[in-house]
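Lab notebook, bench 4. The sequencing result for the construct came back, and we need a structural model before the next group meeting so we can plan mutations. Quick request posted to the team channel:

Model the 3D structure of this chain.
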Amino acid sequence: MEKRQFGKTGYEFPILSFGAQRIVDEHNCTEDEAIQIVNRAIDEGITYFDTAPTYSKGQSEERLGKSFGDRRDQVWIATKTGERTRDGSWRKLEESLKRLQTDHVEEWRLHAVGTMDELDQIFAEDGALKALIEAKEQGVIKYLSISGHLNPQVQLEAINRFPFDSALVALSAADHFIYSFAHEFLPKANEKGVAVIGMKLLGLGRLSDWYEQALRYTFSLPVSTSIVGISSMEELEKNLAVARNFKPMSDVELLSFLKEMMPMCTPEILRWKAKDWNNKEEWSVR
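Done. Here's the predicted structure in token form:
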């Protein structure tokens, strides 16, 4: 698989990374299956794993912890805090470390920051950013990150206020047309050396009829890597096949594909950009 630089960190990752939200009972994936899938991914060169404490009430983190075993030094773990305060975030991190069976994570991410008010809370004197900075100073985490689904202006403001190492943002083909991180956020992030991780490539599965094209669209953007949610070995192998054979979309291919995607730009498809998108348990990285 093609590898790319991860911002200014000095690390590089394959274009395909692992979204771990779906290796859970809720998505019909057993613990044994999860362990097999994760280890198969590592065998095939995938090293970047994204999770969060809210994914099935911690089961995603627990299964990653059980899966890695003595391969912990072969992987990069990115987990998150949805808390907006310093103390709340520290509690979340301590719980995450226990579930992940590790004493540190490579990347800790402010989860789904959607509004300027939330950003102000995070940057307050007792806000979550203070926990991120303290955790890095103590060696519990190495890199600081932020994620966003809704409004790229919020993430733009965030990287203008603080030198985040990375940002996880919605970059599906359908996202191209409204509140577009590809248009509004990606150029400035690249200019600043912020590693950008694409998510929502398959739009909660709504773009499955265009599976290969959907992945190729995001892979063709100037991102460091992209995470795709995986709940079965079949899905993993399908994603690996696309990534191994990846060729950037030509301008003609891109235009044709975007014409097909325009009708998909609806609140029913882009649910993370709809006004009533407030169930954090449903957030997905597919």
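The mean pLDDT is 94.
Will bring this to the meeting.
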